[in-house]
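Anyone up for a design puzzle?
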C-alpha cells in the first residue's frame, strides 16, 4: 500500500469517527438525554438548566467536529472529482454538490439553534415563564428535528456517493 493510500485511509477514518461522534451524539442527546431529563425529579427551571449545561458541553465538541468533517470531506472529495467542473457534469459530482449544500444548511441551522434557542430557553425557564417556554420549545424541537433529518440526509448521500463514485 502506498503512502498516499495510507494517508487517504487515515483521513477517511478521521472523517468517519468524527461523523459518528457528531451524529451519534446528536441522536443520543435527542433520543436519550432530553427525554430522560424528565425523570430527574427536578422542577422545570432546574431540569432546563441541566439540559442547557449538557447542550453547551456538547456544543464545545461540535465546532471542532464540524471543522474536522468539512476539512476531511474536502480532502475526500478529491477522490470523486477530477476537476471542480465535475460538480455539475458527473453523477458523483452532483451527489457531492447536493451533500455540500445540505451540510451548509445544516451548519447554519445548528448555529442558529445554538445561538437563538438555547439561551432563550434557559432564560425563560429560569424566569419561570412557562407558557412562553413551551411555545419556544416547540419551535426549537422543530429546528432540532430538521437538524437530525439533515444529518441523516448527509449520511444517505455519503452512501449514495460510495455507490456511484
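Challenge accepted. My sequence:
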Amino acid at each position: 500500500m502506498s503512502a498516499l493510500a495510507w494517508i487517504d485511509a487515515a483521513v477517511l477514518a478521521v472523517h468517519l469517527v468524527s461523523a459518528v461522534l457528531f451524529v451519534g451524539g446528536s441522536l443520543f442527546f435527542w433520543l436519550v438525554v432530553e427525554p430522560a431529563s424528565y425523570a430527574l425529579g427536578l422542577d422545570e427551571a432546574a431540569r432546563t438548566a441541566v439540559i442547557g449545561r449538557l447542550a453547551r458541553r456538547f456544543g464545545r465538541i461540535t465546532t471542532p467536529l464540524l471543522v474536522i468533517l468539512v476539512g476531511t470531506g474536502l480532502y475526500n472529495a478529491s477522490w470523486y472529482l477530477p476537476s471542480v467542473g465535475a460538480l455539475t457534469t458527473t453523477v458523483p459530482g452532483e451527489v457531492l454538490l447536493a451533500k455540500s449544500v445540505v451540510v451548509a444548511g445544516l451548519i447554519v441551522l445548528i448555529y442558529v439553534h445554538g445561538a437563538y434557542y438555547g439561551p432563550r430557553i434557559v432564560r425563560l425557564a429560569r424566569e419561570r415563564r412557562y407558557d412562553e417556554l413551551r411555545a419556544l420549545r416547540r419551535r426549537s424541537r422543530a429546528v432540532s428535528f430538521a437538524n437530525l433529518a439533515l444529518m441523516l440526509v448527509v449520511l444517505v448521500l455519503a452512501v449514495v456517493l460510495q455507490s456511484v463514485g
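A detail worth pointing out: The mean pLDDT is 93.
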